[in-house]
Amino acid sequence: MVFEFDRKKAKPSDPNGLPKILPINKDDLTLFSQPKKETDGTDGRHAKVTSTWLGHACFLVQVEGVNILFDPVFSERCSPSQLAGPKRITPPPCKLDELPRVDIVVISHNHYDHLDLTTIKNLQKDHQPYFYVPLGNKAWFDSIGIKDKVTECDWWDSHDLSFHDDKTGVKVVCTPCQHFTGRSLTDRYKTLWASWVIETIPKNVSEKPIKVFFGGDTGYRYVPNGRDEDDMPHCPAFKEIGERIGPFDFSMIPIGAYSPRWFMSPIHCSPEDAVRVHEDIKSKRSVGMHWGTWVLTDEDVTEPPRRLEAAMKKRGHDPKIFDVMQIGETLTVDVQEQGKL
């Protein structure tokens, strides 16, 4: 059976259903780019996760003054060439050089909608960040002249970093997911794919670490044509992540590019799958990603948020704890307040 892409199905049923494009809040991004100063009545911690959606799977996440950029793609097309291939239906909310300092760049895998040559080169030129990539991807960075500060990770590898004169420490953990890789017809499965965890390293034993999960690009189960999804076995990796590292204060989970299910289910979550991932990893607050930026499959591109809300209600959850953001929107999660719930 051959998959034939149906662009008519993918066309937005309501153009107003696409994410809005908001200007980034530079004041907030600057504020959270530095650790909180120790003054009377504070412990020198923000105790917050600040996340800005930059489209598709790209987020700027800020924890305790450390800026982490996930899967950055600022090019017009996610393709080997900017002359052809999927073109953005929604633009980035800013130019790359309008972002604050970038300390860490995390890459989930090497597909063009997650790893972009021009974006990576510009980040290296302007920020010289630490790059974290799954196994097999360092060679690509070497080939474009980025040889330093690139760490290649297998699943469950963990690396500690310190910033701001060792006042802020973060742990970067490479975790499993269900996907595949390849940038050409000849290199499929030659490199690893991954989800990722960012965890703060508290200076005091009385403090709890802030934990952030990034789902990257993943499926949850395989659904053969005509079969009931609920009868199908699912990937056990997310429950293992939840047991070993969770619960998570904030999570970014893919919800789009899932149709037709018989073809896409092994590699891309449906909104219903995403809710199960949210449950498995024990996430307290999640947002959807991997939708509303490029037309990659044949579901209505405005559909994922509606199905996400319905799936949350069906599973007995408050839809407000796993919803979607606007492109350029900044969401701040107060971890201390979350702990009181």
Describe what this molecule looks like in 3D.
This protein is of the alpha/beta class. It has one domain: Metallo-beta-lactamase, Chain A (4-Layer Sandwich). It is built from nine helices and 14 strands. It has a seven-stranded mixed sheet with strand order 6-5-4-3-2-1-14. A seven-stranded mixed sheet has the order 7-8-9-10-11-12-13, with helices on one face. Strand 12, helix 8 and strand 13 form a beta-alpha-beta unit. The radius of gyration is 19 Å and the shape is globular. It starts with 6 loop residues before the first helix and ends with a helix. Pfam families: Lactamase_B_2 (PF12706). GO terms for molecular function: N-acylphosphatidylethanolamine-specific phospholipase D activity; zinc ion binding. It comes from Entomortierella parvispora. This is N-acyl-phosphatidylethanolamine-hydrolysing phospholipase D.
- Write down how many β-strands occur, each being a DSSP E stretch of 2 or more residues: 14
- In the CATH classification, which architecture applies? 4-Layer Sandwich
Total of DSSP H or I helical runs spanning 4+ residues: 9
Q: Name the helicity range.
A: 10-25%
Q: Name the CATH superfamily assignment.
A: Ribonuclease Z/Hydroxyacylglutathione hydrolase-like
Described by its quaternary structure, the protein is single chain
